[in-house]
Amino acid sequence: MIADELFDLAPVIPVVVLDDADAAVPLARALLDGGLPAIEVTLRTPAALEAIALIAAEVPDAVVGAGTVVRPEDAERSAAAGARFLVSPGCTERLRAAMLATRLPFLPGTATASEVIALLEDGVTAMKFFPAGPAGGPAYLKALAGPLPRARFCPTGGVTPRNAAEYLALDNVGCVGGTWLTPADAVRAGDWDRIRALAAEAAALRPA
């Protein structure tokens, strides 16, 4: 799989924060059953790498990735845990080299035209746009499409069920990332039916 193919898996990639690795497998199964095979587990908690490893081992139909990759060692450890793609909130030359070295698809974070151009110069065309809302939202991405048509994005940060379709209507948006699919209270309560329902609604999203 190449990075651009992540965009074809579903209109939404759930962005998941897990404090308890034991929730990883039932959570992944609920998202998958709802129609969202790609799952980004953020490296914001001590449980994240174990959660990735459990999903990779026990839910093979899920495409589990690691998010919040901010250090070269994050990329290496995520790959070793079984991640199938990597996502970073921003990108430096050193971090890009580390992600590239894993041979995994990756979505490096961008927020400015200069950052997009720098990645395009390195042959990277699939990117994360973060933080999407504060960085300019759909209007900003629409403006980028004219001068930089080769770049495609997964906007994350401020994306909600109310504005996701507006992002998805843009030619340079392949999918969006969102945290609303896995509410913390639902995860703590093990309310997998609720998460499955949210995933099904997101999987059915269409451009505005």
TrEMBL record:
Catalytic reactions on record: 2-dehydro-3-deoxy-6-phospho-D-gluconate = D-glyceraldehyde 3-phosphate + pyruvate
Record-listed E.C. numbers: 4.1.2.14
GO MF annotations in UniProt: 2-dehydro-3-deoxy-phosphogluconate aldolase activity
Pathway as given in its UniProt record: Carbohydrate acid metabolism; 2-dehydro-3-deoxy-D-gluconate degradation; D-glyceraldehyde 3-phosphate and pyruvate from 2-dehydro-3-deoxy-D-gluconate: step 2/2
PROSITE patterns: ALDOLASE_KDPG_KHG_1 (PS00159), ALDOLASE_KDPG_KHG_2 (PS00160)
InterPro entries reported in the protein's UniProt record: Aldlse_KDPG_KHG, Aldolase_TIM, KDPG/KHG_AS_1, KDPG/KHG_AS_2
Superkingdom, taxonomy of origin: Bacteria
Keyword field: Carbohydrate metabolism, Lyase, Schiff base
Complex and partners: Homotrimer.
UniProt cross-references to NCBIfam families, sorted A to Z: eda (TIGR01182), PRK05718.1 (NF004325)
Family: Belongs to the KHG/KDPG aldolase family.
Name of this chain's protein: 2-dehydro-3-deoxy-phosphogluconate aldolase
Source organism phylogeny: Bacteria, Bacillati, Actinomycetota, Actinomycetes, Streptosporangiales
